[in-house]
Amino acid sequence: QHEWTVFTETSGDASAIVSHVANLCIDTAGISTSPGGVVGDLPGLIATLRKASLNPTIKLLVGGPLFEHSPHLAQEIGADGIA
Fold first, then answer.
1. For residue 67, with 0-12 CB atoms within 10 Å meaning exposed, 13-18 middle and 19 or more buried, which class applies?
2. CA dihedral for 46, 44, 34, 76, sign (positive or negative)
3. How do strand 81-82 and strand 28-32 relate by DSSP bridges?
4. Between 59 and which of 10, 47, 68, 80 could a Cys-Cys bridge form, CB atoms 3.0 to 4.6 Å apart?
5. What would you report as the CA-atom Rg of the chain, rounded to the nearest whole angstrom?
């Protein structure tokens, strides 16, 4: 039997996001940028998520207006793809 469980963290607090990934076996996580499209420290967050993840093969997706207009940035910051 297969099932999906979805968690949403909307606080923007990186430590809360990392906590979810560190305490649950997550297959895929998505990070959405704000309408302003600022990357900020997304490369650092992505690296931290990979390091903290209980799942060594976690897939990290990014989304938002910035990546719609510049999809190549996803690979540059270490994400696996865009959504």
1. buried
2. negative
3. unpaired
4. 80
5. 12
Grouping H, G, I as helix, E, B as strand and the rest as coil, residue 13 is coil
Distance CA 83, CA 78 (A): 14
- Please state, in angstroms and rounded to a whole number, the distance separating the CA atoms of residues 39 and 36: 9
Residue 5 has pLDDT above 90, yes or no: no
| Residue 63 CA: distances (Å) to CA of 5, 37, 42, 54, 80 | 20, 10, 12, 23, 11
Residues 64 and 34: beta-carbon distance below 8 Å: yes
Q: What is the pTM of this model?
A: 0.85
Confidence of residue 48 (pLDDT cuts 50, 70, 90): very high
Residue 25 structure tokens: 């076996």
Residue owning tokens 């607090």: 13
